[in-house]
Amino acid sequence: MINQDYKKMLTGKSIIRELSEYATARGAEIGYENVFDYSLGNPSVPCPQGYTDAVIDMYQNLDPMAIHGYSPSLGIEKVRGIVADSLNQRFGMDYEAKHIFMSIGAAGALAHAFRAVTEPGDEIIVFAPFFPEYHEYIRHTGAIMRVVPANTQDFQINFQAFEETINEKTMAVLINSPNNPSGIVYSEATIRKLAELLNKKQQEYGHDIFLVSDEPYREIVFDGKKCPYPSKYYDNTLSCYSFSKSLSLPGERIGYVAVNPRATDADVLAVIMGQISRGIGHNCPTSTSQLAVSQVINTTSDLSVYETNMNILYDALVEMGFEVVRPGGTFYIFPKALEEDANAFCMKAKKYDLILVPADNFGCPGYFRMAYCIDTDKVKRSIPVFKEFVQKEYGL
């Protein structure tokens, strides 16, 4: 018989994907340039030329087995060492290759991190708003996801609600900064307070609580600022990273888990993740991607367009009367809808070929997400349409 759990999931398709598919179909009718599609967080800038050059050079000059053969379960040793060295230089850490587990994107990193530090029935705390796929990532480990309600004033952590949620069954806490969908970057004060509370609770409960830090947007930070690196503040941290956003390589599916060298069992956690791979088949990232990113490890795509787009949208939304917290990074902005039902708001926007994502599934009803990783010209052309929508539907 077909697995009924997965069959049931067919009725709960991702709203982001549904809207993206609608936008594509609508674009076939009227021209995609006329559809203002803010649905999907797909990087819109080219990958660095250095990455392309590295791949071409490898394919022309390396032994085919080096680029087409299976990589080791934990990742290519040389690449793991390069990742460790880069993190040490950038963040003042002391990683070694043994602390790095190469993964198939950030999703693969999270899949291994969750399983490494929880068992079925344990609880993982997440903070709203959050990426909707966390539900399934966590549920299929057998762990239970507990949600801390959003602090909608500034989208930093709601610490009062967090302290009411954490309990003896909490084995991991998941953070995502810079955050999808809010675009907020957790401040150093927030990270320090979180670390202080987790250390206190570890002592109180008599067991480890791991901080799983989902960091694919770490390089997309605005106003010349930097994102605090959580492993600097809390020993039991697993940093989960993807090169999808920093290098515009989502299709290559390459990332890693970096185990804080001061974490409990730090020297064996990557090895444990190799064993986890045997059970979930989420193993052996492509050799090509590993080798190529190692050659551009401290490079990024030209990410400046995202800050340009953010400023255009933020200023326009504020002018139109929206309540919105200014993003500190990513390529998302998260306004409050002009009516209580954000789904109804986004349905009305579709009539104007504005594709916006309601935030119920992000754990924050009444808000909507805009992924502004699109051409700046298109962002500018969307503003008059947005103003028309707001004026005709809401009289603003």
Describe the protein's architecture and organization.
With 396 residues, the protein is of the alpha/beta class. 42% of the residues lie in helices and 12% in strands. Strand 5, helix 9 (188-205) and strand 6 form a beta-alpha-beta unit. Helix 6 (105-117) crosses helix 10 (266-280). The longest helix has 19 residues, at 376-394. It is globular, with a radius of gyration of 21 Å. The mean pLDDT is 95.
Please describe the structure with a list of short key phrases separated by commas or semicolons.
396 residues, alpha/beta, Aspartate Aminotransferase, domain 1, 14 helices, 12 strands, globular
What topology emerges from the helices and strands here?
Layout: H1 4-9, H2 15-30, E1 36-37, H3 49-61, H4 64-68, H5 77-91, E2 100-103, H6 105-117, E3 123-127, H7 134-139, E4 144-148, H8 159-165, E5 170-176, H9 188-205, E6 210-214, E7 237-242, E8 255-259, H10 266-280, H11 287-295, H12 304-320, E9 332-333, H13 342-350, E10 354-355, E11 357-358, E12 368-371, H14 376-394
Would you tell me the structural class of the helices and strands? alpha/beta
The CATH homologous superfamily name of the largest domain equals Type I PLP-dependent aspartate aminotransferase-like (Major domain)
Strand content: 5-15%
Largest sheet geometry: 7 strands, mixed
Oligomerization:
single chain
Low-confidence region ranges: none
Number of domains: 2
Q: What is the molecular shape?
A: globular
From the alpha-carbon coordinates, what is the Rg to the nearest angstrom?
Answer: 21 Å
Task: Summarize the helix and strand pattern as letters.
Answer: HHEHHHEHEHEHEHEEEHHHEHEEEH
Instruction: Supply the number of helical segments.
Output: 14
- Give me the side-by-side strand order of the main sheet: 2-8-7-6-5-3-4
The name of the CATH topology of the largest domain is Aspartate Aminotransferase, domain 2
Distance between the termini: 54 Å
Averaged pLDDT: 95
Count the strands? 12
The CATH architecture name of the largest domain reads 3-Layer(aba) Sandwich
Share in helix: 40-55%
